[in-house]
Design goal:
Layout (H helix, E strand, L loop, with lengths): L16 H18 L3 E6 L3 E10 L12 E6 L8 H16 L4 E7 L3 H9 L3 E2 L5 E2 L17 E8 L6 H6 L6
Length: 176
């Protein structure tokens, strides 16, 4: 996945095996420390690993931090099947239910229309006033796909009283 330019289009670089292993180690450490993180996504009986999705605490400082973010990355062959929506809805359910987190954010390159659609289908709202220059990305940096890297769009969703499950389910079944 980390070597596929389509998957990594909006990221700074393709991932070597060592860098990919380091990402996995950071994910494991975050889960051990926080009790949540990015989890492997599978299609039971079909594919044991199609990517990852979940919630995590970003390690950088921005006007909206501290916070908990939602994120996903799926292998190209898994795109277009509703898996990102399904996994992200499950992650929101854990965030709002089990962990009683009041707000979840997502941040992505402003030109990443696919991820923006996932955010919108989850019921997230774009916070134009919250858009920011990512502090860990050098000014002028270009992504694998040739996109300016620093400016990020910010999306938000809040837990509603009575639990978030009804609101998340209201967004429609996976694959729509």
């Amino acid at each position: 996945m980390g070597q596929d330019p389509r998957v990594m289009e909006f990221f700074p670089a393709l991932l070597s095996r060592d860098k990919s292993d380091a990402v996995a180690a950071r994910i494991r450490d975050h889960i051990a420390r926080e009790g949540f993180g990015f989890w492997a996504v599978e299609v039971p009986g079909v594919d044991p690993f199609i990517g990852f999705c979940g919630i995590a605490r970003p390690t950088f400082t921005a006007p909206f931090t501290p916070c908990v973010e939602i994120g996903w990355r799926l292998a190209h062959h898994a795109w277009g099947h509703g898996y990102a929506i399904e996994a992200a809805r499950a992650a929101l359910g854990v965030a709002f239910g089990q962990h009683a987190i009041d707000e979840i954010v997502a941040f992505l390159l402003a030109g990443n229309a696919r991820s923006a659609r996932v955010c919108e289908r989850l019921g997230m709202t774009r916070d134009h006033a919250g858009d920011f220059d990512h502090p860990l990305i050098e000014p002028g940096a270009i992504s694998v796909g040739g996109h300016p890297q620093q400016r990020h769009a910010l999306y938000r969703i809040r837990r509603v009283s009575g639990g978030q499950k009804a609101r998340v389910a209201k967004a429609g079944p996976p694959g729509n």
